[in-house]
Amino acid sequence: MTTEKTAEKKPEYLKVEIARPRSYKWSSGKYLGKLYKEALEKKKLVTNRCPKCKQLMWPPMAVCGRCNVATGEDWVEMSDTGTVVQYTYLVFPLWDPHYGDRLANPYPTATIKLDNGVFLVHFLEEKDPEKLKKVKRVQAVWKEEGRGRGLADILCFRTIEE
Amino acid sequence: MGNRVAIVGIGQTYHKSARKDVNQQEMVGEAVRAALADAQMKAKDVEAVFTSNMETFEGLFLPDHLMADEIAAYMKPGLKVATGGTSGASVVEEGFHFVASGLFDTALVIGFEKQDTGDTTAAITAAVTPVWGKGVATGAIGEFAKQALTYMERSGAKEEHAAMVRLKADKGACRNPYAHLKLGLKSIKEVLDSGYLVWPLRLLDFCPQSCGACALILASESRAKKITKKPVWIADVVTVHQEPFRAGSFGDPTGTEEYSQDIAAERLYKRNGITNPMKDICMAEIYEPSNWEEMSHYEHYHFCEKGEGWKLVEKGITEMEGAFPVNPSGGVIATNPIGGTPTIRVAEAALQVRGDAGEHQVTRDVHTAVATALGGPNWTVMTLLRRSL
To answer: Quick check: A95 and B196 CB within 8 A?
Structure first.
């Protein structure tokens, strides 16, 4: 194999910068829309259940792929308490290009198993790396304002003592 | 099975964080010309052209439309594939299927990514479905951080073992003229001193964002024998795609989920009469976005028992001079042009089979090699190469 060393020829080039905001509209669909609506209006997490295997769909959806049946409208309200199964925290700062939020250290996120068995990934309120090791039981803290972003209507998960 | 298919030409670009001297199509053209030169073929000898690129990562729409001239595709048939991290292996599989079917005698397959055009981590973070935590996901790094933690807890591997994997990769990369990061690392301490990206993953534990391309020319048996004295035969390709782990994309902290690597390996080995992978296969080029993932993959590709991947590292078995070398090229942790990364795995494994890897040619003779690819979430492609069929 040979490598062409174009870089060594030092060609002239122009740098073109395009700085323009891009709007973004996302259709939730019929079933996911219900999750968004319940979170927005009632601060509740809901999902639907497969009529055949009775497993909770997550996220709510129209078809259970395992059983190959239409799921329908068997809606279940889910617990907003759960157990942390894995966690990590951001050290290197990132930004969220969709919402424009800056994600900065320590920004702890966790995989949480809700009490009805569904897994979700969300933030933890606890930010001390030493205390994070001991976080087990958590409960959702809902946003009071600016809801309408589905699971992002939950601000974070707070440690609870039981 | 269809007709036999061989790799008859291999070409790569060098890799860097930014290639401001060229645009995307000019960069990809470099790899194509290198592959044509390697096969001593002309653009007109290629019947069909297949490309692999994750265009959402660069934010550039339909890149393949722009580059038909540069990649020998002008007025020819072809397709582009995007299957996430596995794209560059899926494109090899695609070319393999078309040539094996007898529709084409020669096919050019190309994987590429020019990551100075866009911000991949930002793209992954932004493009993830809102349900799975838009804004919560910290790109691929966060998922591999959780994978590392899960691996540590389940296997008992220490950070020192991960550092040893990083040193091994850097040793290979420093000998590989096409590798991106050539750091000249000398000690475990150097790796352990690098800062955290997403705890517990350190800067040196994770792959870079590279600009680069890799091209392979595939040919049917009759054509292959006319083109080269050293064809590398694609014995088999296995793809296993599945839904994400419910409890995590790459590592499963609950210990209850099936890994697509296990299923792919079982299928590939059974179909090809491989009973002892460490003996029947001579080396591997695996897709390891992090050093922790490499140790986990040793286990899920059945190179060792579960929970013992770090022991292979400790014993030096997967070093370039070892009994079963893994990633003598430096691997993904040194070079990562996403759409091209798995194509490079196949290319590097093929170079080892040919004996043409140069400074990073492994000590033992390689008659059989395996190249793997990993995509999010938990997708696997395995490609088995042989010197003779």
So the answer is: no
